[in-house]
From TrEMBL:
This is PrgI family protein. It holds the Pfam family PrgI. InterPro entries: Uncharacterised_PrgI. It comes from Candidatus Nomurabacteria bacterium CG2_30_43_9. Keywords: Membrane, Transmembrane, Transmembrane helix. Residues 132-152 have a biased composition (Basic and acidic residues). Residues 103-152 are annotated as: Disordered.
């Protein structure tokens, strides 16, 4: 028995002509907001910029490609609102200590600093050299006298 595997499940269905359900809701909401602004605000000089802002915002919600930002525009807005509304923890602020008046104490380490010991043996010395100096370019090697081939 063969099973049919659904394909293109990440693409939303077009329900209202070329618009998906989300896009249709955003466009209808933006159109309703524009209509309310048009009917309520009496002066064209005030309502024109507001209507333009609502139209641009509606277009961004409905049609901005998520490939451009990696997420849909509504998720970017949500993250921005969450950032603005939540408390922020500033961990990089330096706390200042007040200097004591009088004598200054010198810092004397209680224990001497350990010095690295050089490992013994070919494997451990190679490991130490790689850790300290990094990988160096190998020298040229001659394969044979007959061939006169030099490899790097």
């Amino acid at each position: 028995m063969q099973f049919h595997i659904p394909q293109y499940i990440d693409i939303e269905d077009k329900l209202f002509g070329p618009l998906t359900l989300k896009q249709a809701i955003y466009v209808a909401g933006g159109g309703g907001a524009i209509y309310l602004v048009w009917r309520i605000i009496p002066y064209i000089a005030i309502k024109a910029p507001i209507i333009l802002a609502i139209a641009v915002f509606t277009w961004a919600l409905a049609f901005y490609p998520k490939e451009k930002l990696g997420k849909p525009f509504i998720e970017i807005l949500e993250a921005g609102f969450n950032y603005m509304l939540r408390d922020k923890l500033y961990t990089w602020k330096k706390t200042t200590k007040e200097a004591k008046a009088g004598k200054e104490e010198e810092f004397l380490p209680s224990m001497p600093m350990p010095t690295p010991s050089v490992p013994t043996g070919k494997l451990s010395s190679t490991s130490f050299n790689l850790d300290v100096r990094g990988k160096e370019e190998p020298e040229e090697k001659v394969l044979g006298e007959k061939d006169d081939i030099i490899l790097k």
